[in-house]
Amino acid sequence: MTDDVIEIDAEHMRIVEAVLFAAEEPLDLANIADKLPADVDTAAIVEAVRAKYEGAGFNLQRIGNKWAFRSAADLAHVLQKHVVQQRRLSRAALETMAIIAYHQPVTRAEIEDIRGVSVSKGTLDVLLESEWVKIRGRRKVPGRPVTYGTSDSFLSYFGLERLQDLPGLDELKAAGLLDGRLPPGFAVPEPDPDSDPNEEPLADGDDGLEPLEMDLPDIDEPAVAEKETGL
Hints:
Layout: H1 10-22, E1 27-28, H2 29-33, H3 42-52, E2 58-63, E3 66-71, H4 76-79, H5 91-103, H6 108-115, H7 121-129, E4 133-139, E5 146-150, H8 152-157, H9 169-174, E6 199-201
């Protein structure tokens, strides 16, 4: 008994190639499917395109739940003769970035609790401007603080397909990024950003940049006693 083989239409592959090539940003399967005839197995066509360019000078790469053409990683030295670093992230920004990556979704207060020191608004602003970090939603607690997480740009820059591909404890030790004298039971968290029931997405019109206006209960003003005056 042999497995069924899905026959891929060459014209459908050409459509997917054109759509992805012209896209300014990575596309998910739903956006790609909009350009194809109905009842077409979009995932199978995308996989066929990925296989077609495997080993070529550019590849179809998965970035989170989206797809985009990218130059082959092993040819980076050919394309970049001079690397200019416009802004160097501070130690505080790097530590904050790592906490967000591994603990997301995470609030500013939670970041401060993990780091043990306060996090300035400027540090978070720098990470938001880099587009590696984004405001995800709000925590379901009093005050409704915003939650932070990484973006698809973060995955793309570091060559990750998904957050679960972040280096683990052994890899971080081998790279010299962790002290060998770690406390017993120390572990690197495994990011699972879609499993937090205490987070909800931003509502329409809420960009997360301003605190929510809380509805305060109506409080009756104290009655003013009338002063009797005598003659």
